[in-house]
Design goal:
Largest sheet: 7 strands, parallel
Family: Belongs to the DXR family.
Number of domains: 3
Strand content: 5-15%
Radius of gyration: 20 Å
Domain 1-deoxy-D-xylulose 5-phosphate reductoisomerase N-terminal: 4-132
Number of helices: 16
CATH architecture of the largest domain: 3-Layer(aba) Sandwich
Order of helices and strands: EHEHEHEHEHEHEHHEHHHEEEHHHHH
Protein name: 1-deoxy-D-xylulose 5-phosphate reductoisomerase
Binding site for 1-deoxy-D-xylulose 5-phosphate: 125, 151-152, 178, 199, 212, 217-218, 221
Domain DXP reductoisomerase C-terminal: 261-376
CATH topology of the largest domain: Rossmann fold
Bound molecules: nicotinamide-adenine-dinucleotide, magnesium ion
């Protein structure tokens, strides 16, 4: 019996994780479930998983959480505050930690799990983008194991698994992108929040759905791949593949390409990571090739979607550029969702703000958090005086 903690248990990835775990009650038990503010959904997650502990990030909601757990007649212990989430990420009782918090809010817990030597099933790509080399070194130094939940990286992980050290040295990564909802839309100036929060193939949280529409998600994934697989950015390509059947590919020295295919359902990659090295049945219908009417590929359009190019640029610049780009994007997306800026302003703001990143690479978790915080303040200030011209 392995004990699992789910950080971000009320989100899209968290919910899919619970779904897979509930198929294997003999293999897994749940130590902790966490969320930021949705008390009722967190208490429901505690009930579904019979979790020992439930943590709500917003400390003011402790009493409400306690009541919600009582109302469900659960013995689950209530905890509150961001520090309590980070403590759960490192708790000795959990062998596996699922990192499914959205945004840079997941950085501290990812580092805590790494330092505690956990098997870390990481969906929170932002912590790899911001933690970069420092995070990978921390994982190594503490004997932790990172298994990528992000479907593209999970695909790359599977395609690289049988490669020898020598084969790995010359590999190229080809990340697939759906192209998002605006792949064919020429005028992006009128995009509404409603349109940007609906993805053609995947059902996901709001932030990542907007990121998919701007192609920032693919940009963050390029940065994520750079660190997860130690692949320099000039050996990472992106190809638009609207059907989202091929989840990503690896090309070797001889030109041969290995691809991983599957239905676009995150339960597949979650099950892969939970069971690794065994394979578990996620309850997802396997692909039916007779109903697939072709796999197509296109070059990404970085004129309409410059965020992808900014990600490569941030990697080339180094220092705190990736932390900056990630934070600026988070704040810009937040403002877009609140109706304060237009969809086309998101890349414009990233382009300008990226230039103010420090050229010194972070040396500690504190440096990472400080750079993230500073970038958020600067961006919010910039947006307050922003006219869109
Ligand atoms: P979501 O918005 O559906 O859920 C986010 C979760 O994080 C919630 O449980 C929420 O309570 C928690 N959270 C939010 N802010 C927090 C804070 N400040 N402190 C603590 N907890 C906080 O997001 P999601 O779509 O499940 O995505 C989660 C992560 O997984 C993201 O990094 C995303 O990029 C990545 N990811 C998601 C998918 C997907 O299909 N949804 C696919 C690949 C990668
Ligand atoms: Mg992905």
């Amino acid at each position: 019996m392995k004990k699992v903690s789910i950080l971000g248990a009320t989100g899209s990835i968290g919910t899919s994780t619970i779904d897979v775990l509930n198929r294997y009650p003999e293999k897994f038990a749940v130590r902790a479930v966490t969320a930021y503010s949705n008390v009722q959904k967190l208490a429901d997650a505690a009930k579904k998983t019979n979790a020992e502990v439930a943590v709500i990030g917003d400390a003011k909601l402790f009493g409400e959480l306690q009541e919600a757990l009582n109302a469900r007649q659960l013995k689950t212990i209530a905890k509150a505050g961001e520090k309590a989430i980070v403590e759960e990420a490192a708790d000795p009782d959990a062998e596996i930690v699922v990192g499914a918090i959205v945004g840079a809010a997941g950085i501290a817990s990812t580092f805590a799990s790494a330092k505690a030597g956990k098997r870390l099933l990481l969906a929170n790509k932002e912590s790899v983008v911001c933690g970069g080399r420092l995070l990978m070194d921390t994982i190594k130094a503490h004997g932790a194991q990172l298994l990528p939940v992000d479907s593209e990286h999970n695909a790359v992980f599977q395609c690289l698994e049988s490669a020898s050290e020598k084969m790995r040295q010359s590999h190229r990564i080809i990340l697939t992108a759906s192209g998002g909802p605006f792949r064919k839309r020429m005028d992006l100036s009128t995009v509404t929040v409603e349109e940007a929060t609906h993805h053609p193939n995947w059902s996901m949280g709001k932030k990542i759905t907007v990121d998919s529409a701007t192609l920032m998600n693919k940009g963050l994934e390029v940065i994520e791949a750079r660190w997860l697989f130690d692949t320099p950015e000039d050996r990472i390509d992106v190809v638009v593949h609207p059907q989202s059947i091929i989840h990503s590919m690896v090309q070797y020295e001889d030109g041969v390409v290995l691809a991983q295919l599957g239905a676009p359902d995150m339960r597949n990659t979650i099950a892969y990571c939970l069971g690794y090295p065994e394979r578990l049945n996620a309850g997802v219908k396997p692909l039916d090739f007779s109903s697939i009417h072709g796999l197509t590929f296109e070059k990404p359009d970085t004129k309409r979607f410059p965020q992808l190019a900014y990600a490569y640029e941030a990697l080339r610049r180094g220092g705190c550029s990736c932390i900056m780009l990630n934070a600026v994007n988070e704040i810009a997306v937040e403002n877009f969702l609140k109706g304060k800026i237009r969809f086309i302003d998101i890349p414009k703001i990233c382009e300008v703000m990226m230039l103010s990143a420090s050229e010194h690479a972070p040396k500690s978790l504190e440096d990472v958090l400080e750079a993230d915080k500073e970038a958020r303040i600067l961006t919010q200030e910039y947006i307050s005086g922003y006219t869109g011209e």
